[in-house]
Design goal:
The chain is built from nine helices and 16 strands. It is an alpha/beta fold. The protein has four domains: 1-81, Translation Initiation Factor IF3, CATH 3.30.110; 82-174, Alpha-beta prism (UDP-n-acetylglucosamine1-carboxyvinyl-transferase, Chain), CATH 3.65.10; 184-273, Dihydrodipicolinate Reductase, domain 2 (2-Layer Sandwich); 275-339, Ribosomal Protein S8, Chain: A, domain 1. The strands form four sheets. A four-stranded mixed sheet has the order 1-2-4-3, covered by helices on one side. A four-stranded mixed sheet has the order 5-6-8-7, with helices on one face.
Length: 339
């Protein structure tokens, strides 16, 4: 049984999710302790417990310690069971992170799977649905499988209440290489508000117009009608020949619309200034599927602690090498190959 220390590296939930994902894929059992030791509230929160239980259901796993607040558990999968599933977090915890936990196993399962996920779809510190749909899943689909996701109802923090549906058609994963971004062919910004004045969205888009000097026809304000609670997200898409990247800013109490927009603008400006195809979040989230494909190579910014931690956990389950080298100013090359 593989032993995982949840306090390693960045000490967050990614260690847990990566361990679950690769335990399902490889069939290797594991035990984990010090879960989320690097967070203010360590242990399993509702979102993490949902991911654990979802993985257990899909992997027909024997599990001990799966309860709210638990800082240790063991997980012993039996086999991958595709089919129809419905997972509800019961809070604004991230549906997308639960989905990314179980996706690797479903990508290589023998039959298609349909999933409904309920909870938070747009909350800080997790990939929002827009990122999943426009940046992450298109790369997965280029690797062989076919994954389609449809947002049925947004769920903003802290009310939650969101819902999306996913269909997964598995296939062998092909190696993926991406060293050049290519020409930028489209740029858009979309500011959404739910149960809040639309002026907030307009103010955010005005910052985009001024700081990035984008034409106003590229900017769109949207009032969301079917949200359970208030919320605001600014989504900026940069589409190039070889990839689409998505950058977001989340509205929060006590933070002006202008500051929310400036944060997103800073990320976009950095991306546009350097010819790297992948931003930091996408680079981190593609490590697992690329490792399962047996290899790949891409360029991105300097790896975060989140990324380096993720790489080390992957190597505990799969015999791969993951090398990260700086090739020029603020440009790194990450390569994965079978060990």
């Amino acid at each position: 049984m593989i032993t995982i220390d949840g306090s390693y590296g960045e000490g967050g939930g990614q260690i847990l999710r990566t361990s679950l994902a690769l335990s399902l894929v490889t069939g290797k059992p594991f035990s984990i302790r010090n879960i989320r030791a690097g967070r203010k509230k360590p242990g399993l929160m509702r979102q993490h417990l949902t991911a654990v239980n979802a993985a257990a259901e899909i992997g027909l796993a024997a599990i001990e310690g799966n309860r709210i607040g638990s800082q240790a558990f063991t997980f012993e999968p039996e086999t991958i069971k595709p089919g129809n599933f419905h997972f509800a977090i019961g809070s604004a915890g991230s549906c997308t992170l639960v989905f990314q936990t179980i996706l690797p196993a479903l990508l290589i399962a023998g039959e298609p799977t349909e999933i409904i996920l309920e909870g938070g779809t747009h909350n800080p510190f997790a990939p929002p649905f827009d990122f999943l749909e426009k940046a992450f899943l298109p790369v997965i689909n280029r690797m062989g499988p076919r994954v389609d996701a449809v947002l049925e109802k947004p769920g903003f923090y802290p009310a939650g209440g969101g819902r999306f549906r996913v269909s997964v058609n598995p296939a062998d994963l092909n190696r993926f290489d991406l060293l050049e971004r290519g020409n930028i062919i489209n740029k858009t910004a979309r500011a959404c508000v739910a149960n809040l004045p639309v002026n907030i969205a307009n103010r955010e888009l005005e910052v985009i117009h001024e700081k990035l000097e984008w034409d106003r026809e590229l900017l769109k304000a949207v009032e969301v009608e079917n949200s359970q609670g208030p919320g605001n997200i600014l989504t900026v898409e940069v589409e190039s020949d070889n990839i689409t990247e998505v950058f977001t800013g989340f509205g929060e109490k006590g933070v002006s619309a202008e500051k929310v927009a400036r944060r997103a603008v800073k990320s976009v400006q950095e991306y546009l200034a350097f010819n790297v195809p992948m931003g930091r979040y996408l680079a981190d989230q593609l490590l697992i599927p690329m490792a399962l494909a047996g290899g790949g190579k891409f360029r991105t910014f300097s790896p975060t602690k989140h990324t380096t931690t993720n790489a080390e956990i992957i190597k505990k389950f799969i015999d791969v090498e993951i090398e990260m080298n700086e090739c020029s100013l603020n440009q790194w090359e990450i390569e994965i190959w079978n060990g």
